[in-house]
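Heterokaryon incompatibility domain-containing protein, Suillus luteus UH-Slu-Lm8-n1. Tokens?
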Amino acid sequence: MDTIDESAKASCLVWSHGKSAVRDVTYTTVLTHIHSAFKQECSALCAANGDAALAASDYDRAIDLYSAAITLNSSSSTVFANRSKAKLGKMLWLEALLDAQKVIKLDSLSYLGYNLKHAALHGAQRYDEAIQTFQTMLSKLDDAPDIQTRKLRHQYLRPSQVERVIRQVINAQLENAPLRVLDTTTGLLCDREAQISAFTTSTEYKELLSSTVTRPDLDTQRIEEVVRRNLQYAMLSHRWEGREPLLQDIQGKSVYDSELDSVCGMTKLRSFCKTARDAGYNWAWSDTCCIDKTINVELQQSVNSMFVWYHHSALTIVYLSDVPPSSKSGALAKSVWNTRGWTVQEFIAPKVILFYQNNWTLYLNDRTPNHKESVAIMQELKAATGIDRSAVVALRPSMIGAREKLRWASTRVTTRQEDIAYSLFGIFDVRLPVDYGEKQDKALGRLLQEIVARSGDITSLDWVGKPSAFNSCLPISITSYQAPPCKLPSLPEDEIQSSVSSLRKIVAVDFASNLYTQLRKMSAPRFATQRLHLPCIAFNVREVRRVHSPALETHFTYRVKADGLLDLLITTDDTLVQFWLAKPIEQHFVLVRPWDRSLLELPDFAEPPEFMESSDFGPDTESEEGYWTPPSSPSQDWSGDYPGNEEVLDQESRAFRLLVRLGQPFSAFLLAQQRSGEYKRIASDHDII
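Tokens:
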């Protein structure tokens, strides 16, 4: 043969050394193969037992078994991956991270190592690295050669997707929050962008992002909870005492800096921020320094949004500077805080409120988490303010019960006279321009005009005092609402039925029905550009004569006679032209009964209650209990006068019942015709009945 097989050469070479050498080589080779196979089999057995322990959440045993398997065979990425999972179960984050990195080294194309690395970094709170690793894992899944692996991509979300959703939740949370707040940790004043930046660079935000991406569906509930917890804020309610820290005093500085010690009111502001911080809130708001009053647009938005801000606060802290430590019950009621105009909404709007004495300890040492739930404190405040607890606990801003809400503010005072009206914007759910310098009567007039125009509620016309230059049907001052609304006694049902039976004998059905139909067609009140269109029943005045009064008397009393009515006396500041049948005048006077549609006894339509048990307010909020409804007009308290909804009256019956009611005493206005043809209300010092 010209060539010899290489294996044959080797055989010959071995043979040349004798039979003994052949036996040694063969034995060594066999032992090596046997040992290797045995190690692999033992490693596989350890790994299999480790899998069983891992499935049973026996992490310690699983780690030991996987470690033994790795000692026997360190080339299996699967065993390293499973040991990493077991260490994650034991929260051994750094050890799990080392195993995950080993998986990546052994199988760099697989997504699994990056998945485990992300979990380990997340557990170690190294969130920036975790998110970066997660991005790499997603790219591995996107580039995977097999379809099954690529399908796993649907189990995860991209960080950018989650970031967009979190930002949407942040924007929604801040929609009803103040424009500026104080950081209770740093003491710095922050606008919304600074707030957002502080949150998105926080550990909580990064943890939220890193944990949310691992889910197939967005956990919006958790996102909302984390955002709410981090952006919730505390509000301060207090009375201004001389000069207070303004935005310009603290901008760019920390309220905790000693360089601000000389600024008046800084001790109160610092104590408020510390109290809010100790209560667990990152942000705090005070009306002294969190509004740039030099920017008109910001001032307008702040005044119109104040009620909403207080309502959505996590806590409102009321500081009582004139209530000393260890005060007894009753000190709160006597506090000047109860006399200020803005504190009405600051008391009513918040869901949670706490009262602090002047040393920043809780009033009466009352540890109730929410003083609106403290029976003793609420009883004390009701006696002091006249505001019912149901309104304090669950007011829904609206124009319902306007007269009662005006009474709440009637004894309050404000430094700037226009604020007595501006402070009520939120309670009535109106947004109007703020124009300091317009005076109280115009500011109040614009508010009352808006209430009547939008709601048709004319209870705000029920007042005693001096008329406004804005419109004579409105008062010049909020103090005109101090007196309770006019409330006349109502007829018992049996008397109404008796009167109806008598009327049926002397009044034609057609007459009663036609009158009822005519009044039912009466239009709603309209109020615009300082002109009030008031639906009413008018009674022609045929005589006005002055009753004798002292020469220096500033009030004048007149005897007034009108068609269809009993004579009455009216006392007023106005000097009226006297006239009677033998001395007629061109000017026309009328006594009018403002029309009240409740007299028609039409079936009720469902309306949203004013005071809700819900923690929020909005047009879709519904509740059947826990609300309070004040009388909606001076003569509308017809409780018990007619059958309930279970008995529906026909129109003929309602027509005769209307005639009975029209024969009862009513609250009236005296109007005097002007040269323009319009009418002016003659204000009286008492209700005209």
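The chain is about 45% helix and 10% strand.
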